[in-house]
UniProtKB/TrEMBL annotation:
Protein name: Major facilitator superfamily (MFS) profile domain-containing protein
Transmembrane annotation, as ranges: 113-132, 152-175, 209-230, 242-262, 274-293, 354-377, 389-410, 419-438, 450-474, 486-506, 512-536
CDD domains (UniProt xref): MFS_GLUT_like (cd17315)
Keywords: Cell membrane, Membrane, Sugar transport, Transmembrane, Transmembrane helix, Transport
Source organism per UniProt: Physcomitrium patens
MF terms (GO), sorted A to Z: transmembrane transporter activity
Membrane topology classification: Multi-pass membrane protein
Keyword Cell membrane: yes
Compartments in which it is found: Cell membrane
Main location: membrane
All residue ranges annotated as the Major facilitator superfamily (MFS) profile domain in the record: 116-540
Entry-linked SUPFAM superfamilies: MFS general substrate transporter
UniProt family annotation: Belongs to the major facilitator superfamily. Sugar transporter (TC 2.A.1.1) family.
Record-level GO cellular component terms: plasma membrane
Amino acid sequence: MACTFGLAVGLHHFISLSNPVFLRQSIDNVRRRHVAVAAKPQRVSGLEQKLPNLPLLNTLAWPRSRSLSLKAQVDEEESVVAPDTGISNQSSNDRALEAALAPVESESSWLPAFPHVLTAAMANFMFGYHIGVMNGPLESIARELKFEGDTIMEGFVVSIFIVGAFLGSVIGGVLADKLGRRSTFQLDAIPLVLGAALSASAQSVNLMILGRFLVGIGIGVNTGLVPMYISEVAPTKFRGALGSMCQIGTCIGIISALLIGLPAETDPHWWRTMLWLATIPGVALMVGMQFAAESPRWLGQMGRWDEAENVIKNLWGEGEVEVAMEELRAASSNEGEDEDITWSELIQAPYFKVAAIGSALFALQQFAGINGVLYFSSLTFRDAGITNSVAASAAVGLANLIGAVVALSLMDNQGRRKLLMGSYAGMAFSMALLVAALEMPGNSDFAHILSVGGTLFYVFTFALGAGPVTALIIPELCTTRLRSKTMAVSLCTHWVFNFGIGLFFLEAVQRFGLPAVYSTFGVTSLLAIAFANGFIIETKGRSLEEIEMLMNPEK
């Protein structure tokens, strides 16, 4: 707990040092003033004559970083107009400009959108639950379904889940565009419920495999759909915090599977109850989405502007409607309403850049070693004298959950980019601790403490940024028309590397040794820091339409 608190405070302090106060108080909502300024052009007519090249009234979604450059231009123009008069430059035009640049307190709140986000995050709960549900009772399942001792079949029962998730990622991108986000959630609940029911009632290994495959398809759809939906319905001010519910939902699902699975140690048939229970959140998701809001971005893309306006009014507040609708219409006019969206657009400029960034982020996430660390966590704890596997899993799950909760509080405060870089820095440091512990001679208590601490610190820092930010920032960077397909491509990359690393991880450990493999994970974390620094823009406080303009300035 001390490590957790220390990292949170340290990271907060580090990031705060590089957060300019003026920038935070600048034109955070200058676009909100656009309508008011346009309605009263006489307020700035003099300024426009003086500064004809400044796009004061022609830019709808003005990047917030423009405040400093605009201030510099204003000062420069004033010095040219009256360089030696000594008269104060605080003219009426200046005051009008300052009024336009003054920060406007948003009326939006996170509460109206929270029930909708919570309903969507139920899909992440199922993801975490299905990850953890097979860990404990796999031996009992193999014994009852008569494939005990067949390691290939045991591995296939587990890995078929990933194959289904890969296919689900592709299917989800198509369904989300054609049917809408809400209907896709409801349709996706069918394989989740059916797959869990088939697995729970399986009398043969083939039926178990089919059930796991169907569940994998459902999870594959949801892993892209949930962050995309949350990013589109959450108010800009709270999009990062609400987006963190994805990681929190997954953590709670894993811990729930662990706790619900406790009777499996004494009851060899308890695994059926665990799998039957997995149908409940699937049904709840299907019913809950009937009352959830549709994405206003998707509604705008379909030309259903009245519905989009009502959703924004209900979820973001009355004061957000005018600006948000202007932004949606501007983005739609650039992209074209209801045009056919093809996969080939992802390999064309400028969209290829975002698809490549998304795929690279997920590849780096997997190569940074999260699955390897979790795989060896039980052995690490056992060597340290913690022989209770439940206690070890609970400690790892708790570290994961605490990290996700801390990320929720920092996401909209410090920003995605810095949180991502700080997370990978912590993961690299954790790998250094683990390698140092492995290289220590003998079987010292200090080495065990170092290895356990390094493992927990790694999981905590992963949940702080590499986990939640990766899933959240990709839909933020995407254009609305291609958001679902970009997420699909990125997540396909995720599942391919997830499967590949799981397949070859033990072989690499046997051939090169665990210290060498962990060192590779640490180097990958450092590369991820460089990648985030060079290619990721900060998205906090910006609407999705503003981010789209920054990523595609030529449009």
